[in-house]
Amino acid sequence: MGKMPNRPEDLSKLDVRAALEATPHYGKLSAFLLADLVEIARPFRAKAGEVLFREGEICGAFYVIVEGSVKVYHMGADGREQVLHRLKGGFSFAEAALLELGVFPADAICVEDSTLLRIDGARFLRIFRENDRLAAAMISSVSGWLLRMVERVEELSGASAGARLAHYILRQPSRDEGGVAVVELPMTKKDLAGYLSITPETLSRLLRRWCDEGLLCMDRRTLKILDERVLMAIADSENAD
């Protein structure tokens, strides 16, 4: 992934081409195709808590995150929020809704002040039908989303709450502090509970118990992994609640 452009004071100064080039799939397009996408991309800013779209709404565009982060989630019949993805700068989303579904299959909301590109759907589809290379990029993007969704299904269906949480912690980037791995949780406890499909109370109970047992040391969203071996055993277990 390329380097993201700095946030401009004025959106008119935003380098839309650089933002597209920073994505895994559109950055591989020819200069000609990139120029076409720049013409149909509208940059905008969204505040934390601002809704981008709701499940079931007609999909008339897809999005690229330039800076900030977006939560994609589904509200269950019981009113519980299931976080599907937490996306940061350099990623695009909602292409599958535009290409196939016609409607958004989930809700999306900014979790912090963000800068995004809105890619006009109707104009994009015209370009898409005329260019094999763009079609290949879209197939690659949608395939990547499919693989991530399969991983999410496997993660949520085949493990206990404790195993899911341990596996999630161990997958996060870490830094070394005196021989101890330190992890910064990228989301709030509420969002993390939703992402792992557990209640906030269960999440807090597990973290508190692991701290009491000496596996972790936690300060807000900073975790020190004190016993990685035991945490790995929990991640591999089927019943770790």
Would you give an account of this structure?
The protein folds into 2 domains: 11-157, Jelly Rolls; 161-236, Winged helix-like DNA-binding domain superfamily/Winged helix DNA-binding domain (Arc Repressor Mutant, subunit A, Orthogonal Bundle). It is 41% helix and 25% strand. It has 9 helices and 12 strands. It has helices spanning 16-21, 31-39, 95-101, 121-130, 132-157, 161-171, 189-195, 200-212, 228-236; strands at 41-46, 51-53, 61-67, 69-75, 81-88, 92-93, 107-110, 114-120, 174-177, 180-184, 216-219, 222-225. The strands form 3 sheets. It has a 4-stranded antiparallel sheet. Strands 2-7-4-5 form a 4-stranded antiparallel sheet. A 4-stranded antiparallel sheet has the order 9-10-12-11. α6 (161-171) crosses α9 (228-236) and α7 crosses α8.
Counting structural domains, the number is: 2
> Which strand order spans the largest sheet, edge to edge or round the barrel?
1-8-3-6
Number of strands: 12
Task: Classify the fold: give the CATH topology of the largest domain.
Answer: Jelly Rolls
Keywords, please?
elongated; 241 residues; single chain; Arc Repressor Mutant, subunit A; Jelly Rolls; alpha+beta; four-stranded antiparallel beta sheet
Please render the helix and strand layout as text:
Elements lengths: L15 H6 L9 H9 L1 E6 L4 E3 L7 E7 L1 E7 L5 E8 L3 E2 L1 H7 L5 E4 L3 E7 H10 L1 H26 L3 H11 L2 E4 L2 E5 L4 H7 L4 H13 L3 E4 L2 E4 L2 H9 L5
Give a quick summary of the entry.
This protein is of the alpha+beta class and 241 residues long. 41% of the residues lie in helices and 25% in strands. It has two domains: 147 residues, Jelly Rolls, CATH 2.60.120; 76 residues, Winged helix-like DNA-binding domain superfamily/Winged helix DNA-binding domain (Arc Repressor Mutant, subunit A, Orthogonal Bundle), CATH 1.10.10.10.
